[in-house]
Design brief:
- The chain is of the alpha/beta class.
- The chain has one domain (6-280): 3-Layer(aba) Sandwich (Rossmann fold), CATH 3.40.50.
- It is built from eight helices and nine strands.
Length: 285
């Protein structure tokens, strides 16, 4: 049975001439529906190339793998203002499409993501009965801010004019890797927090629907709020201890991006085996 579908064809067709070569959706398929399909979601302002290494390794192990280009991402023009139009609703609609494609590609679906992608993986873990979800350094708030401030701050940001800020004010447009944008939109960050707020609220009320859930953090995290992530983990384990785990990686440098081989290759090499084991459920009791 071919895993090709109209949904997948439509997704691939969105990568027109405006999209950079390394910004395009990656679909590594075996020409049939496999036992497992893996969906990998990149971070804010990044692109599918962020997960290319994982995708090829998982495909070589027999999985169908989809690394979709998130909405408003991947444009050839790194200084694009496309992120100004990113919304929570647009992201969740896209996530539903990715999950529907995943169900066509594999008998079981695993979803994993980093940062914004990790937040979307956590949303799927909470709300969709998939087999496995792995949230890597998910965005549930800003590291330097108490999480109780995030909701009013996000709503204030949405009332103020949308601004573009440099991820690295020193490197500015020279920031690497080239397959990501060097800036983010303030409204995009606020819209992402609306999703985080929903996940935290729903996790406090009910158990996650995914059969297996894993959260990965860097103990030396520099950008996202690990306290909020621990709150999510506490809510999930309060409802259901089985099938929920959190891996706090220690000994890494002060950093957020722990998976991008073109930015922090030594860090990515150290983290990679842990993530691969979680994605494949290896070592579970």
């Amino acid at each position: 049975m071919s895993p090709s579908s109209r949904r997948l064809d439509d997704l691939l067709a969105r990568d027109d001439a405006r999209i950079a070569e390394r910004g395009r959706t990656i679909a590594l398929l075996h020409g049939r529906r496999t036992e497992r399909a893996v969906i990998l979601l990149h971070g804010m302002s990044a692109s599918p190339a962020q997960f290319e290494r994982f995708a090829r390794d998982l495909h070589a192990r027999g999985d169908n793998v989809l690394v979709p280009r998130l909405p408003r991402h991947g444009y050839r023009d790194r200084m694009t203002t496309a992120l100004a139009d990113l919304t929570a609703d647009r992201l969740i609609r896209a996530l539903h499409q990715y999950l529907a494609i995943g169900a066509e590609l594999g008998a079981q679906v695993t979803i994993a993501g980093f940062s914004l992608g990790g937040l979307l993986a956590a949303w799927a873990a909470q709300h969709v009965g998939i087999d496995r979800a792995v949230a890597i350094a998910p965005f549930f708030g800003v590291a330097v801010l108490p999480n109780r401030w995030m909701n009013p701050l996000a709503e204030l940001m949405l009332r103020l004019p949308n601004r573009f800020q440099w991820w690295d004010p020193l490197a500015r447009e020279r920031q690497q890797p080239e397959h990501g944008y060097p800036r983010y939109a303030t409204h995009a960050i606020a819209q992402a927090y609306r999703i985080a707020r929903t996940v935290l609220r729903d996790a406090a009320r009910t158990a996650p629907l995914a059969a297996h859930v894993a959260i990965v953090t860097n103990a030396s995290e520099s950008a996202v709020n690990n306290r909020a992530i621990r709150r999510l983990y506490a809510s999930w384990t309060a409802h259901r201890a089985a099938g929920v785990e959190m891996l706090a990686l220690t000994g890494l440098p002060l950093s957020h991006d722990i998976i991008e081989p073109m930015r922090n290759p030594a860090v990515a090499d150290r983290v990679y085996p842990h993530l691969l084991a979680l994605l494949r459920g290896e070592g579970e009791r």
